[in-house]
Amino acid sequence: MVTRDATWAYRDEFGDRFARTYFRRFGEGVVSSIGVGTYLGDPTDEADDAYREAIVQALESGVSVVDTAINYRNQRSERVVGRAIEEADIDREAALVATKGGFVPFDGERPDNPGQWIHSEYVDTGIVDTDDLVAGQHCIAPGFVDDQLDRSLENLGLETIDLYYVHNPETQLAERPADEVYDQLEDTFTRLEERAAEGDIRQYGVATWEAFRVPADDDSYLSLAEVVSRAREAAKRANNAATHFRAIQLPFNVVMADAFTVQAQEGSEGTQSTLWFAHDAGLNVFTSASLAQGRLASAGLPEDVAERVAGETSAQKAINFARSAPGVTCSLVGMGSPEHVAENVAAGTHPPLGADSFDAVFE
Questions:
Q1: Taking every annotated instance into account, which residue ranges of this chain make up the domain NADP-dependent oxidoreductase (predicted)?
Q2: Is 308 part of a structural domain of the chain?
Q3: Residue 361 maps to a domain
Q4: Tell me: the pLDDT tens digits for 54-94?
């Protein structure tokens, strides 16, 4: 489990290599503001080996955040992360490991008949109720998430997962009203509060793709205020003194800046952007898609933005733009091969944009 002392010691070891604000607060400790993402890539042994080598290299170079999910690459990404954490020459308690549950995962490879496999492995066994399954592949019911958490602990080889996300809860909105989704989130949060009290997770949150960056009238919209309220209620139901809901994850980059530009979350003084709401609520924000799944590394940022952002390459500029947004704790970058690690990590040797310079991009 990530700890205060180990993260500060890691920062002391690597901090001089990076520019200001590279390490940022996470609870009582600190984490790197660039993290490893593990979404992309084929579910092959060759990709596993490349990921393992890349993650070890990143951890030994000053990147202390690794993000994955049980469904990424058919559970292979979690298993690779576990092997890399064990192999890397760092203190395990210095690295923040995050994973997610919500999409029914295959096991190692995609089956010939996915629907039949899901029914056999999850429905017939009673792990998933068909009424809770959306689009044949998504479930956030407490029993299912409980099962997925156990599998993730085994895949990662960890006693405690530092940050566990309910994965894309807005997927449920395709087949049920928002009130029912909030109710189910509260039930699942209650179980996660219990698992936190038992020591299986340290903190939890929600990882989204659309929910927190669309207008309030969008079919995929979720109210972050309501989600936080349900987490607080869950803590009470679990007899915890305070909620362990501490983080959100959402896409953010120069072409997907909605979390900053769309004011659709109800704060204490009116509507505001998700990033500012999260900041005011004391939530850590982890951004995904920093390179827009590689497009910004090749196409680059718009010229008027690129000239403002520090970095030697298009990828570095894109990473630094993402981690310049207000309230962002860490920006995740896919590092599926060792060749990408050095360039991505080196982005942290350049300072992010200041608040005025960042705001000026949108004027």
A1: 34-361
A2: yes
A3: no
A4: 999 999 999 999 999 999 999 999 999 999 999 999 999 99
